[in-house]
Amino acid sequence: MGGAVSIGKAYGFDKAASTSVIPRVMPGTQGKNKAPLQTPPNGLKRKLTMRHTVRLDTEAAQRVQTMVLDMSRTGRVELTSTADHDEAGVPLGTLTKQNLVCLRHIPEMILSMPHLTELNLRCNEISELPKEIGELVALQVLVLSKNKLSEIPEKLTKLTKLRVLEITHNELTALPRSLGNLGALEVLLVSNNRIITIPDSISHCQHLRILNLYNNELTELENNISFLVELVELNASNNHITKMPKELLLWKNMRRLFLQVNQIASLPALDALSNLEVLQVQQNELETLPSMQDLVHLTKLDANNNGIIALPADSISDMTALVYLNLRNNKLTEIDPQLTQCLELEILDLGGNPIRSPIPNGLADLSKLRTLLLDGCNITEDFETVVHAEEAGSRLVTGLIIELKACHQTSGNSTPL
């Protein structure tokens, strides 16, 4: 069988992997208990002991060994079962394809492959990582998602070449204190665990670009995260966060910031996030949005279901690329005239607010606006008055009026993307 598909390519890593010197099973011998082994090329020899092999007590174990040996030649090993395999379109895991059951332990053979660069053990029943995991010194990608891990050993932080660490959907309550030793780390995915806090040492992961903390038990984002200058995406949604760092001056590369479904009452100024494209802070306890001047690349802002009274002055008008704005179910009493400067706006959801002010005439000039939701507001103005008489016959304005009338009768549901 062929080697495992590269996980690293999914994150943009295309470097060729090193070749393992572990002996290979000769063709046609997979079904025999005493398969002859081919001597590694270039005269390299290695004593094969039980520490380097999987015990061949069963046919299944032998088949796993054969898979590992075959894959190891590429530097990549993938031993995965298939989660939700009854759903159409879900690809089969490598173990599932061979009618093999989930792994409960990492095969010892793998722990003796110092040239391994990628290891994918997603969707198994592994509950413990052996300390020998730290001996895989060439490892760049490690995927352990959807297992039963309750802790990550400190030895794992010896993997100083690791660039991607994916350990989502486990039972973790903490990350290694020495996490900062992973100086090459670029992607850290730890969503759907029970993590309470992030170790201070994470500030030393200066190459970290993507950090996913979704659906954990965090109560605050501490200042150590604010020093991650290369961050492009942070997802800390679905936690219990009440406190944010005081300043976010170093997040100049941040493009996507997800903080929804927390208990955040205030946000620090976001003016420095000049490359921000997506900001999601819905379902928090915000009474106001922070200063967001010069966010000229922001395309999506979702702040529905908060307690926002008014929009920040001289901020919204700078959002010249804004396409989607959702402020549903807040406490706004007027439609801010700044919105008429958002010329790229396509979807504007202001439903469920106690808005009493007239609709600004400038909204009719937003040529790309296709959805305006004002249901649940207190506006009694005839929507026809929004349009100047000389423009009433234009295709654009006629379409907008129809949309406005239709939206005035909608339910309280938020507009999807």
Automatic annotation (TrEMBL):
Residues 24-43 are annotated as: Disordered. InterPro entries: Leu-rich_rpt (IPR001611), Leu-rich_rpt_typical-subtyp (IPR003591), LRR_dom_sf (IPR032675), LRR_domain-containing (IPR050216), LRR_R13L4/SHOC2-like (IPR055414). One of its GO terms (cellular component) is cytoplasm. Pfam families: LRR_14, LRR_8. Residues 109-190 form the Disease resistance R13L4/SHOC-2-like LRR domain. Keywords: Leucine-rich repeat, Repeat. Signal peptide: none annotated. Coiled coil: none annotated. PROSITE patterns: LRR. This is Disease resistance R13L4/SHOC-2-like LRR domain-containing protein.
